[in-house]
Amino acid sequence: MSNLFREVGLHAGLGRTVTLIGNPRFWKQLVLLLHQATPFDNALAIFYPREGPPQALEEYDAEPSSKPASMLTYLNGLYLLDPFFQACREGYPSGLYRLEEVAPDHFRQSEYFLSYFHDNVLEDEVQFILQLPDTGTLSLSLGSQRVFDREQIGQLTTFAAWVLPLMQQHWQHSQLRPQLPVAEEMASQIRDALSHFGSAVLSDRELEIARLILRGFSSKAMAERLKISPDTIKVHRRHLYAKLDISSQPELFSLFIQSLGHDLDNP
């Protein structure tokens, strides 16, 4: 009987979600509907335009807390290290993706994961990704303090068959779309923050490796990606650390965060 009431509640929630297509309350209702079916701890609906920084559309916390600074940091450039953002930019087809499907092999050892992701997104994340041709990407992220199990992933994968069309319909009918385009100067500035980081002192290859380190790639994965040996990767890593006068990944991450602040304050 409890399963019957649960199904009735889900169908009723789905009906309410459909009626809110084009309404600012759509995202919150969709998140609450998903939370009713599969428990998670936070959610974020976000739009990644083809140019410029992302635009947060809805935030949800099962246990609300005030984290304005962390979201501002993410929107101001830290998103460049987000594996889901990279998946969106690389054109992953619309669908549901697990963190392990999109993250580099050493992502959980990266300073981005340790210093930001684990405190704000928590332990695991899945994301509904909807590609908007010639416009950008719309995504709905679900974060959890525990790793999503096989049953939860299976259920969310099934839900993707109607979640993604609902997201598409809402985008097309919404009267409150994000303002496009973003100011061109700011868009270019944020977009290039990662590619220009350290460019004054590092070689092109060292810049490439610094970016991969920040994103959480191991030496082996970098070697395979760049088609060079792991030993050569280690040499480049030593050289770039020496040129930046640092000795660890946390210091590299700290320099990147500082460069974001400097770039945004000095366009």
From TrEMBL:
InterPro entries the UniProt entry points to: Sig_transdc_resp-reg_C-effctor, Tscrpt_reg_LuxR_C, WH-like_DNA-bd_sf
Domain HTH luxR-type span(s) in chain numbering: 195-260
Biological process, per Gene Ontology: regulation of DNA-templated transcription
One Gene Ontology term of the molecular function aspect: DNA binding
Pfam family, one: GerE
Keywords, alphabetical: DNA-binding, Transcription, Transcription regulation
Classification via PANTHER family: DNA-BINDING TRANSCRIPTIONAL ACTIVATOR DEVR_DOSR
Protein name (record): Helix-turn-helix transcriptional regulator
Natural source organism: Pseudomonas protegens
